[in-house]
Amino acid sequence: MRRFLVVIEKAENNYSAYSPDLPGCIATGATREETEKNMHEAMLLHVKGLEEDNLPVPESWSFAEYMAV
Fold it and tell me: Taking the domains of the chain in order of start, what are their residue ranges?
């Protein structure tokens, strides 16, 4: 099992998500929960596609931190 950081952003009328370690892997949804589900499915398909094409699956190097200012 692999773990990747996912960034979820609130847009005007929906949510969008991406993973910095999986370029091109994105998802959207009407709610945060729907976006999380869609992103999980997108990541599964993305990794499976890389493996089927004998391409390397990137390592997960990204992390996030909240900072008070």
Answer: 7-52
What is d(CA 26, CA 33) in angstroms, rounded to the nearest whole number?
15
User: Per residue of the chain (69 residues), what is the pLDDT tens digit?
Assistant: 899 999 999 999 999 999 999 999 999 999 999 999 999 999 999 999 999 999 999 999 999 999 999
Predicted TM-score (pTM) of this structure: 0.90
Asked if 42 and 31 touch (Cβ cutoff 8 Å), the reply is no
Q: Which fold has domain 7-52?
A: Double Stranded RNA Binding Domain (3.30.160)
Give the residue among 31, 24, 14, 17 at the shortest CA–CA distance from 45: 24
In whole angstroms, what is the distance from residue 68 CA to residue 49 CA? 39
